[in-house]
Amino acid sequence: MVERNVTYLKALSEAQSEEMRRDERVFLLGNDVRSGLFGTTKGFVEEFGTERVRDTPLAELGFVGTAIGAAMTGLRPIVDFTIASFVYVAMDQMISQAAKSRYMFGGQVSIPIVFRAALLYGGANAAQHSDRPYPIFMSVPGIKVIVPATPYDAKGLLKAAIRDDDPVFCFEDSSVWLTKGNVPDEDYVVPLGKAAVKREGSDATVITVAGSLLHALAAAEQLSLENGISVKVVDVRTLVPLDWETILEAAAATGRVVVVDPAHRTCSAASEISATIVEEVFESLRAPVVRVTTPDIHVPFSPALEKTIYPRPDRIVQAVKRVSGQDGLRR
Amino acid sequence: MVRSRRFEEIVAELASAGEITGGVHLSIGQEGAAVGACMALRKDDYITGTHRSHGHPIAKGADMGPLMAELLGKRTGVCKGKGGSMHLADFSVGSLGETSIVGSGLPIATGGALSAKMRGSDRVALCFFGDGAANQGAFHESLNIASVWKLPVIYLCENNQYALSTPAASVISVANIADRAAAYSMPGKVVDGQDPVAVYEVVAEAVARARKGDGPTLIETKTYRYWEHAVGLRLAYRSADEISIWRTRDPLVRMAASLAELEILDAEVRELEQHVETEVEAAVAFAKESPFPEPDDVFDDVYAMPITGARL
Asked: Complex ipTM, two decimals?
């Protein structure tokens, strides 16, 4: 199999261009998609023209609703929000229209639409530009949610999202934008709703959301070398629907579980995953499930403050030691 | 107009009797605007509606049986009992659905128009919205998008003078909502909503313009609802005199008078009314005889490509 080594951003770009070539109903709209702000639509105008690569007025509510109307009537739009916080301006259309219309209209209509947004945290952009809002959408039935962490998954999941007949929200973790990975030359998709075991291990299980996968892999390596703890790492990849079969099996296999999620702690994806693990495989657990998340505070501007708040390898190491009874605390 | 009027009169009875539950917003008095507008459309053109929208799919040609069954929450309802009075939709006649979030249908209709244009179809989209929606940001954003992209869309405001109980004149910065069209470089027309023929003519012109690729139009129909905002409410914000004055301009009465002037026999009008009566009775019988949904149906139609996991 011929493979190429590409960045996460290049993988997202390829997913879109390949799907736009495959299906003429697919088109892009959003602010500055023609100039390609983050580089995922470079060269698109030249290949696909301005009809299918649409710069919109700066009006998220209006252009999201317009895209939904287009999706209801035969097209397959990809809406680029650029930065995730901008979705708040469009929440009425996202929730009352995109998510609910199919159900309220008794299945008369499908809404094949993809929303893309960058999780731009960790870059000194302060509270309004650094959100990780995917848990909000996990509590809105009707929208599927993907959070790829690698170039392979980003390309495969985004292609699957574009082919899906429901609204899919793709949250793209900017902390892994420039990481590289192999993608095959031939067409492939990563099906929605399938988690992936990214590292095998037998002593503890770390379940990751979005870019926290890389921190978990670093932590697992350190724990193996320094503490002799063998860590299984599972990337959920999709948040709606969650792959409970893989997650629960991995949790039960070691009975010691840490869930890592860059979202705010309360009602995070990690909270939902932890609760379900406790509900479903309690008998297999050998320690309380521990979450490693961002605390319930806003993202501060100063890099000196910001770098402390997100899940990092050292916090994951600490959490794994805790569920393994190796944190030095007597219980 | 007679269909819509009789349908809603029966709905009022069923709602008052508790047979129709939830919020029910009647458009009795506004039929001229809805019917005049839809007469200018083809069946494959798109419409979007509001919380006060029983008449819109009827005017577009929808079968009244499934509409009535929907209001009664039946499995045979046009939305299988999932939408109810405020969220009717009948895609078979181009009704892309109604929305109970004021103003949120404006971008959807804009999208229907974008899609028609991009697919090379000559369909148009017509968006019904009220005076209240004209103050939403979605109004501004939609009209601006439609204008810069020259989309085949008609924004048809049914200005019934009140946003629930708030007088339009007290919260709108211009004398006519249609005056705002100037800000979007599109034609803005004001028309008497109690005169369906006048509405038809103005909308037909806008539809022709849209089909030619000349872009959107904003039309404001001046109209009135005789009933309260919703069945069951009793708020004191309108005088009895005001309601009686508008009743003298009733679109059905005026249409009957016009037909008489044209020497269309009274007997033919009576025959039409009788025919509609039979249709509405059949719709009610269909709705009442239809079964309620089964408990498991609650899980259906969240997704087109279903996922597992939703459970009680």
From this structure: 0.96
